[in-house]
Amino acid sequence: MVGPVSNGRTETYTVYVDFLDEDGPVVDTGSERVRLRAGGTERVEVEPGAPGVASRVEDCRLDRVV
């Protein structure tokens, strides 16, 4: 979940996610843009960037939101 925006405006954020294999190393990354109003939250679904990687992904972690 991304949120909240505190300045009373609508802001655009980019959510970056690392995708991990069963041993823990990052096998791919992905990102998704989201617009939020002040006080808002939104669930963001981020897909791996490379085709065919999803079958190797065991976990994911939030890298950053900018």
When the domains are counted, the total is: 1
What sort of overall outline do the alpha carbons produce when their principal axes are compared? Answer: elongated
Taking the alpha carbons of the first and last residues, their distance comes to: 13 Å
Rg, please?
Answer: 14 Å
Number of DSSP helical runs: 0
Q: Bin the strand percentage.
A: 35-45%
Please write the string of helix (H) and strand (E) elements.
EEE
Sheet/helix structural class: mainly beta
Report the strand count: 3
Give the helix/strand layout.
Elements: E1 11-20, E2 26-36, E3 59-65
Antiparallel strand pairs: 1-2, 1-3
List keywords for this structure.
3-stranded antiparallel sheet; 3 strands; 0% helix; elongated
What do you see in this structure?
This protein has 66 residues and is an all-beta fold. The protein has one domain (11-65). It has strands spanning 11-20, 26-36, 59-65. It has a three-stranded antiparallel β-sheet with strand order 2-1-3, with no helix packed on it. The chain is elongated, with a radius of gyration of 14 Å. The two termini are 13 Å apart. The model has no long low-confidence stretch (mean pLDDT 88).
